[in-house]
Amino acid sequence: MGAGTDQSVFVKNRADAPPGFFAWEAAGLAWLGVATADGGARVVRVREVGERHITLERVEPARPTPPAAERLGRALALTHGAGAAAFGARRRAGPATASSAGKGSRCGRSPAGVSSTRGPG
Asked: What's the CA gap between 3 and 81, in Å, rounded?
């Protein structure tokens, strides 16, 4: 999927992605999304994963308000509380769980070497 196809998605591309790069990202998003059911922060949904791209649902910006900031802070605290024992800890299931990726978080910046596209533009 590339630019010019769907405004409801955000596509991250990396031509030199190592094997499994985006599958691991999808698995991480799915892992973070597990906490959503218990009040954790909502995580962006993964629509498609390929060797050189990941397609995510598009998250539209909203006007920040003090009550929204408080809700997000509480939700993030729950998400962090449900997390791994250490930074970089791996979940027992690897990137194969990416197909069930789920409830999503949004990223403000792309890592070095990653380009992003969105719908027609």
From this structure: 37
* Mean pLDDT in residue range 60-86: 89
In the DSSP assignment, the letter for residue 62 is: -
**Strand 115-118 versus strand 46-49 pairing type:** unpaired
List, in order, residues 6 or more apart from 14 with CB less than 8 Å away: 21, 22, 52, 53, 113, 114, 115
Segment 52-64 mean pLDDT: 93
- Model confidence pLDDT, tens digit, residues 82-101: 876 666 666 555 554 433 33
Collapsing DSSP to helix, strand or coil, 21 comes out as helix
Reported pTM = 0.66
The number of C-alpha atoms within 13 Å of 95 and in the hemisphere containing its C-beta is 12
